[in-house]
Write a sequence for this structure.
């Protein structure tokens, strides 16, 4: 009986529902009222129209794979800890270069035989 009362109160919105409401909300805006979707779109469009600059992916692909002695590479992104990323230990057992998930640097095992 009590459960029927609780269900009725939830339906009447007197008690809050434990379910989340996934209805479409109003578009997000900045503190001055500009829709954030416009800012992202304009920034991306600006980046894509200047063909003289290379994208970050193109720049990182120009770096040759780093040869490592051993089966594991430790990537920190940069020699300066303030500019790097969390340390990632990368297994080099495969024949193709292994890629750091944070910065995109590639590592290969340097075979000495």
């Amino acid at each position: 009986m009590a459960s029927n009362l609780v269900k009725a109160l939830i339906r009447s919105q007197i008690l809050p529902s434990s379910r989340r409401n996934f209805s479409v909300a109003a578009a997000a805006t900045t503190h001055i009222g500009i829709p954030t979707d416009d800012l992202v779109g304009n920034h991306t469009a600006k980046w894509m129209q200047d063909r003289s600059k290379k994208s970050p992916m193109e720049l990182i692909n120009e770096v040759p794979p780093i040869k490592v002695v051993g089966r594991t590479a430790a990537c920190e992104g940069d020699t300066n800890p303030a500019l790097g990323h969390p340390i990632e230990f990368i297994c080099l057992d495969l024949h193709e270069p292994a890629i750091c998930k944070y910065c995109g640097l590639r590592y290969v095992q340097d075979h000495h035989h």
About this structure: Residues 36-49 form the longest helix (14 residues). Residues 54-112 form a domain with the HSP40/DNAj peptide-binding domain fold (CATH 2.60.260). The chain has a mean pLDDT of 76.
